[in-house]
Specification:
By secondary structure, the protein is α+β, with helices and mostly antiparallel strands. It contains 7 helices and 4 strands; from the N terminus they run βαβαββααααα. Strands 2-1-3-4 form a 4-stranded mixed β-sheet, with helices on one face.
Length: 196
């Protein structure tokens, strides 16, 4: 079995998979910086979706973090998620998709707080709504017994929102407490975004 995870150091979708695979010596992590010409050309050559992460299982490409997780789960014998867990993961992924959209729009010079723009208003309303939904679940979590793909996903999302200054998570002290509780879990230090 030859698995190669292709991704960047900064992507939260990549990070949660790196956390899942932390310590697995059978997986290679190939870093791609799609903001540079060489990395962008490579990504386009291997992935028609032109997005990270992607997994190569031998010669078989696997796209999208959710599908990659499902594929790895089958290989590693990880139990399938329940419907409630799938809903939580969907909420986290939607929050991240929204954050990435806002980050990309801002990087393109758009004022992401323009209240006359219906799309931006919807995006900005979505994050706190999802945080409110996730909070009752998140406050019950224990890093000793609940370090799994869901908490890895939430950690990656909440951390990234602050790192990219996309949304002020300090409005939600429960999420800041979650970060603090889980900051010493396996792989957190090793997958941290490198300081530049």
């Amino acid at each position: 079995m030859s698995l190669t995870l292709i991704g960047s150091h900064t992507s939260p979708f990549v990070r949660k998979l790196r956390l899942l695979l932390h310590g697995d010596q059978t997986v290679t992590f190939k870093v791609v910086n799609y903001l540079e010409e060489e990395g962008n050309a490579y990504l386009k050559s291997v992935n028609p979706l032109n997005q990270l992460p992607m997994l190569l299982d031998g010669n078989q490409p696997v796209y999208n973090s959710r599908i990659i997780f499902n594929h790895i789960s089958k290989i590693k014998g990880i139990a399938p998620l329940t419907i409630d867990e799938e809903n939580i993961l969907s909420a986290i992924d939607t929050m991240l998709d929204t954050g990435v959209n806002l980050f990309s729009l801002r990087k393109g010079g758009i004022n992401i707080h323009d209240e006359s723009n219906y799309f931006l208003v919807r995006q900005n309303e979505r994050i706190p709504s999802i945080v409110k939904m996730l909070t009752p679940w998140a406050v019950k979590l224990d890093p000793k017994s609940d370090w799994n793909f869901l908490t890895m996903s939430l950690y990656s999302a909440v951390f990234w929102m602050g790192f990219r200054d996309v949304y002020d998570m300090s409005k939600h002290p429960e999420m800041m407490e979650f970060l603090e509780k889980f900051k010493n879990c396996p792989g957190i230090v090793e997958t941290d975004i490198p300081k530049t």
